[in-house]
Specification:
With 136 residues, the protein is mainly beta. The protein contains one helix and eight strands; from the N terminus they run ββββββαββ. A four-stranded antiparallel sheet has the order 1-2-3-4, with no helix packed on it. Strands 5-6-8-7 form a four-stranded antiparallel sheet, with no helix packed on it.
Length: 136
């Protein structure tokens, strides 16, 4: 199990305040698929906030808010690599975008309308309006 808390990419930060502004995934009503697997409890996330974003090649991606008190705009990206608890990572920042990676997969939680054109030229793919993924 790997737990990693990383800062967002400063050059890509967008202005945000309050709740994770502009991350539409958090505004959607929770559904059963949004629940994080039980083994991710160790990540200290607000489990009620988690939202399933996408799955690709057996890897699941979630957005969540940190459980600890902090910036109201804080957001986290979760990569669940093996779906069995053996390979996962969480990256959090005070506001989106925030990126992290594990096992040759990088993921970035971005705000609605984020201009990813330059990142897509570098191999990133949009799997959800709030999710960019790159395979290494």
């Amino acid at each position: 199990m790997i737990l990693s808390v990383v800062t967002g990419l400063a050059a890509l930060m967008l202005a945000a305040c309050g709740a994770p502004e502009g991350v539409g995934a958090f505004e959607e009503e929770a559904a059963p698929r949004d629940a994080l697997p039980a083994y991710l409890k160790a990540a200290e996330l607000d489990t009620a906030s988690s939202r399933f974003l996408a799955e690709s090649d057996g890897v699941a991606f979630y957005a969540a808010k940190p459980a600890a008190d902090g910036a109201a705009s804080a957001a986290c990206i979760v990569i669940d690599g093996q779906r069995d608890g053996s390979s996962w990572v969480v990256g959090c920042a005070e506001k989106a975008p925030v990126a992290t990676g594990i096992d040759g997969v990088q993921a970035m939680l971005v705000t609605d309308g984020f201009d990813s054109s330059e990142l897509q030229q570098d191999g990133w793919r949009e799997l959800h309006p709030n999710l960019l993924v790159k395979r290494l």
